[in-house]
Design a protein that fits this description.
507 residues, alpha+beta, Nucleotidyltransferase, domain 5, 5 domains, 5-stranded mixed sheet, 4-stranded antiparallel sheet
Amino acid sequence: MIGRALEAEILRLHHSEHWPIGTIAMQLRVHHSTVRRVLAQAGVPVMQTTVRASIAAPYFAFILETLTKYPTLRASRLYQMVRERGYPGAPDHFRAIVAQLRPRRAAEAYLRLRTLPGQEAQTDWAHFSTLTVGRAVRPLMAFVMVLSYSRQLFLRFYLGAAMNYFIRGHVEAFAAFNAVPRVLLYDNLKSAVLERAGDAIRFNPTLLELAAHYRYEPRPVAVARGNEKGRVERAIRFVRDAFFAARTFRDLDDLNAQADAWCRGAAADRLCPEDRSRTVWAVFAEEQPRLLALPENPFPTEERIEVSVNKTPYARFDWNDYSIPHTHVRRTLTVLATLDTVRILDGQVLLATHRRSFDRGAQIEVPAHVEALVSHKRSARANRAQDRLHHAAPSAQALFLRAAERGAHLGVLTRGLLALLASHGASALEAAIAAALAEDAAHLGAVRHFIDAQANARGQRPPIAVVLPNDPRLQDISARPQPLSDYEQLTTQPDHERTHDDHQSQP
């Protein structure tokens, strides 16, 4: 319907300005049929336009027959078929013709589903953008459960839609309702239905354990029958529009706190669709006693997985590494995780407890684990060195015992003995240690004294350690050895000849 002023303007332009119908419709931004109706109501004779026959008219019978036999045949394939039969038109116009002639399935009518108080609830996941935690970008998923009778809502956000979050959503929803519905309707998601062939359904075994614990019946809706869980679909749309739109929050905990307050406040104060005279909260107060009572203990919601630890003392879980004692590397351990903590066990023995991180590539460490590993590495290096000395010089063990009794620094003693072993050999070191022990001199200086004395007695000069500067130009240098025969001739010449040569050489 248009206003009186617009009708008067149409009549003025037609009678005074003699504008045609198409011009009036275009300039006033109304449909040409509206202009014709106004002129006809005013008694103005309107010229009837002649409808031109479509060039596809001769092919209508063939198109209808083909579409009746093959209702889903694509318009592009049908266009090729009529082109082979002489159709001269363009494909764009042909698609519009096919859209008009294609047989349509009769619209299906649905009964309004009504439930009894405490009988049923519907649940589903909904995706709400992503959340960045450190270097990780995780999906922000909403678990929604709605009681079919009162429309009381439960809303909780998680960083994913894994099975442990799905189970946790149920447990927290039942705790919020302080009761359990008798039937829960699910979509055919993998967390609920692993496999389905007609009426044969294979449920997720974890979901069956949950249902047995809370004594409710899990019931998946029929395939492609979203109307059977329309209450939760409308609830998700309500959450998007009335809660999440333009909402700000600091983190996931803050968002869930706001969701709890909204479910108990604005969402509960809305009018109940089944009884517009009462609020959802009032109807829920009537429904709540008819729900099933909660069991004594809630269903366990910890995520449990087996992890294989390599040579580094870290257990990887959910993209992050958590430290463990170094004594438990190269084993298969058990990780038990909640939203707040990560516990790592070896059988029944608790190895570590960490605060959970939703970052990516982070190392969460207990300082004691790192300190124990560093200490172990130091003692291991010392043990390997002492074992090497014991095999090379058996008296070294007694030397270490006496040195430890006198409070000597065993690390300095170990490094000194290893240097003597490398420069003089095992037999010389064993003899020097035995001599030092005989004199009750259990220290490095005594061993050095006796090993030098033994070398001097054999006519050997002490080895001189040559250490090149840390210069890359000197590390790989190679010098060609020169013959020493010229120097040997000096020892065979008489003393007076060497003196005469020396005077001749002076300037």
